[in-house]
Amino acid sequence: MSEQQGAQRAWRWNDPAREAERQAQHELLIDLLGAYVDEELPPETASQLDAHLVGCARCRREVQLQLAVRDTLAATPMAPARPALRDRILAATTTLPQASAAGAVVGLPAVDVHPGDATSRTGRRSLLRRLTTWLVAVAMLAGGWAVWHSVAGADRARVTTLGTPTASVPLLAAAAADFRRLGSADLPGPARDLDAVRAAVGVPVEPLTGPSVRLLGAWTTSLVGVPTAVLAYRWDDRLVVQYIVPDQLFFRHPAIRAAAASHHRVGATDGNVGLVAWPLAAAGSVLVGEGSPERLSGALAR
Amino acid sequence: MIPASDQDLEQVQAQFQALVMPHLDRLLGFAARRTRSSAEAEDAVQEACVRAWLGFAGLRDPAKVRPWLYCILRAVLADNCERDGRRQRLVSITRLEDEHEALVGGDDDAVLVEVDGRLTSEVIRAALADIPEDFATAVEMHDIDGFKYQEIADILGIPIGTVMSRISRGRRLLAGAIAANQRAWLRDDGKGERQAEARRAARAVGIEAQGGLRS
């Protein structure tokens, strides 16, 4: 032990009243030291602490500790959210109803709403009310599905143009290339048994039906290395080809997932070839033919 | 009121995405420190964003979007915690305060300098799990997420004086937890070294008994 430390200990023992006073002061100040290093104290309080720190090694150590912990935490690396999470959230915002008025966030006078409102009982009741309303609406929609589908035509018929180049979606690029190959050669032999095709690809395969759509043949191929059912049709005196692929391939690309989640068909073009993609019950389907995706979508009308 | 047209809806969606998506990384970090896996953290953030979308009308001031999102995320995490019945791995506060006292209450800086020199993000992240949630949350919101004291008070719904106290005391408890962990590691290291030495000695005895090394 150094001479100075020995003297300090002796002083402590010799003056218990001052030591008790100092200890009481520590108890009062110690909870302020965090705010002191964060510069969150009023100037006059900070000045009082400045004066205290000059003569108090213990509080100086406390300040050093507060700074060390704060700065280490501030340097904690932040892992970026995976693109898949972003896609899931974006898809949710396009499928769930948005109960607020358009322009509710921007355009109205700024009202200082306590952020806690979102979790307050009122907020929860409000959220529950909205969810209940939504569930009731869903039930009503489910009940009227058949009428809605037959009379008004599903919103699914709406074609959303792909937001990225077709070449960047391997499934669509491969389907377009395969269609071009077919266009420049004879179709593969007579139509195969659909059950054999189903067994080969392992997904349900149901041909399109419609007044002017006629199945010409069915076979299997491989798109992006995945077994795929190919169904060729004569529609409006032209050839259109449907590719049915497993879910894993269909939902692989975020642009497809986003459109599928919004219950819209995905439309894309590759030169003079149009493509329309949509999800099936347990698979995905891509229809390819010459012309625009909107026109091609007419082959799906029943 | 539901947006009158698809165009209105798309406009609201664009507003929502522009306001919310930039905060996704930080929200995920906050959730990750309170869940058992990255999948759970992602689920919590997604749930929070869905709730935010459903209640988007409740946000009147776009400048407050970040505290608003944290508020919602905390509610989601609290619901999950209640549902899962999870409990934190807590260390006695008294023990952590004793460890902290040993750091700052001595007559020299040696122990403090030692702990300071070993502080890393990993070490401190592990220590965050040892201290009570109230303290950890206040410290993280300030030191990691960059909220001001008043914002933290608004999010947590507590007076600013309580925020001040929780941050200061939370850092002290963290330092105590780190010191306690280091003591445990040092003990384990010593034990491991002794065991390795014992194994080496046992092998040497065995070799000797078999008649020495074969060439």
Keywords for this entry:
heterodimer; A: 302 residues; alpha+beta; Protein Transport Mog1p, Chain A; 7-stranded mixed β-sheet; 13 helices; 7 strands; 47% helix; 18% strand; rod-shaped; disordered N terminus; B: 215 residues; mainly alpha; Rna Polymerase Sigma Factor, Chain: A; Arc Repressor Mutant, subunit A; 2 domains; 10 helices; 74% helix; elongated; disordered C terminus
Domain tally of chain A: 3
Enumerate the spans of chain A where pLDDT stays under 50 for 5 or more consecutive residues: 1-13, 100-156
Biggest β-sheet of chain A, characterized? 7 strands, mixed
> Considering the protein shown, what is the CATH homologous superfamily of the largest domain in chain B?
Winged helix-like DNA-binding domain superfamily/Winged helix DNA-binding domain
State the total count of DSSP E strands of chain B. Answer: 0
Cα shape of chain A: rod-shaped
Mean pLDDT of chain A: 73
Can you write the helix and strand succession of chain A as a string?
HHHHHHHHEHHEEEHHEEEH
Shape summary of chain B: elongated
Helix content of chain A: 40-55%
CATH architecture of the largest domain in chain B: Orthogonal Bundle
Number of domains of chain B: 2
**Which pair of chains has the greatest number of interface residues, and how are they split between the two chains?**
A-B, 66 and 82 residues
Helicity of chain B, as a percent range: over 70%
* Estimated radius of gyration of chain A: 34 Å
What amount of the residues of chain A lies in strands? 15-25%
Q: Strands across the major sheet of chain A, in which order?
A: 1-5-6-7-4-3-2
What's the CATH topology label of the largest domain in chain B?
A: Arc Repressor Mutant, subunit A
Q: How are the secondary structure elements laid out?
A:
The complex is a heterodimer of chains A (302) and B (215).
Chain A: H1 3-14, H2 16-29, H3 33-37, H4 43-54, H5 57-74, H6 83-95, H7 121-143, H8 145-151, E1 159-161, H9 170-183, H10 194-201, E2 213-223, E3 226-235, E4 238-246, H11 247-250, H12 254-261, E5 265-270, E6 273-279, E7 283-290, H13 293-296
Parallel strand pairs in A: 1-5
Antiparallel strand pairs in A: 2-3, 3-4, 4-7, 5-6, 6-7
Chain B: H1 6-20, H2 24-32, H3 38-54, H4 65-84, H5 93-104, H6 110-118, H7 121-128, H8 133-143, H9 149-156, H10 160-209
